[in-house]
Amino acid sequence: MRRAIVLLVLLGLAAAGAWWLSGQNHEVEISAGTWSARASAPVAGALAVGSVLLVALLALLLRAVFVMPQRMSAWSNRHRREAGDRAIEEALAALAAGNVGEARRATTLARAKLGDRALTLWLDSRAAIAAGDEAGAEAALKKLARVPRGAVPGLRGLASRAAQAGDNTQARRLLADATRTVRAPALAEAQIELALRARDWSGALNLARGMSLAGRRRAEITLAAAMALPEGDERVALLREAAGADASFAPATAGYAAALLARGEMRRFRRTLREAWLAGPHPALASVALQRQPGEDARAVAARVAELAQAAPGAASHLLRARAEVNAGQWAEARRQVAAAREAGARTRSVHLLLAELAEAEPANDDAARAKARDAVREHLRDAAMAPPDAAWRCRVCGTAYETWVPVCDACGTALSLEWSTGVSAPGTAQLPALAIAAPEA
Prior knowledge:
Blueprint (H helix, E strand, L loop, with lengths): L1 H21 L4 E6 L2 E6 H57 L2 H15 L3 H14 L2 H11 L6 H14 L3 H14 L3 H13 L3 H10 L5 H12 L5 H13 L4 H14 L2 H14 L3 H7 L8 H14 L3 H13 L3 H13 L5 H13 L5 H20 L5 E4 L5 E2 L15 E4 L21
Antiparallel strand pairs: 1-2, 3-4, 3-5
């Protein structure tokens, strides 16, 4: 548009000049050495304008001759890019639809049109994996690791394949190389997962600290590292770190509170237990609350538990008090607390088992009372068999239930897979989401 405007202005100026010259009666003489030429002013003006236009036309022709190869090259490159982009879209659609043959054809075309770039190589590796071509996938990932912006997804993909083959050492080395290339949270998470597979709790904890991991995952890793250590200051320090990472993660806070109780640090023990109970009552915390300090009797524990329960009223607190009162032999108060728990909505199996235990433990003065107690025990046991199950730690991979939290599921060998739940959910397949081969940037 700008060039057209300039051309129109120049033509207008030329026309104006020609019109002005046409009205002149003068003659113009041009001489060069012995040669000379004479013409009227209109003719000379027309010749001048024609010469200028001829020179401009020749300049445009010369420019077109020199620029044409560049324009042809740009057109060819644009055409290749468009064809390559279409091939990438077709490959993605084919992979999503599970059409392996079409995906491989499209990825081959994309590499031919666009070359070995990060995205084309990544697509080629995914298509090869879908087709079961292990050698092709390995080759594509190795090339991907050597191209710009491909080091991280390439090394990450190779690490994933090494981990799936059981070579955790090689997988961890590849991820370490990728981490040295670029700092990315996903890479650190993948390294943590591999360290957990290798049961390298301290290594996983160091990685978690390096990436400032927080919350439940950090608490689980730290607790696992603490449980691998013998009793001592280092173990207590890790328990404190685990409890601080997530106060609602009962196994960590219960472990730290138990360590404080064993050391006789009662003030800190009470404060830690109270804060954890307020964050969320849990059987692990209740178990620690019922433990005795050396020289402490059952009634003193019941009094301490009553103080804790008053801080967070509810069914769990009533059941905790009931257990403490049973241990102290306070049958009437125990029954009262169980009744309060049931009024608050407690209907699980453990409530009926506690009632059965209470009926059996409470002294009977005569045969009639003992017979009545036996009948009550049987009734409570029948109710327990029909009552909803209590929540438990269950492996999210295989569904195995545990009474207490453990770092590794004994059934399937998955690390940090336990979740607190009331029922068995459909078990999934053990995998490392953090090791998925992520797509590189386009």
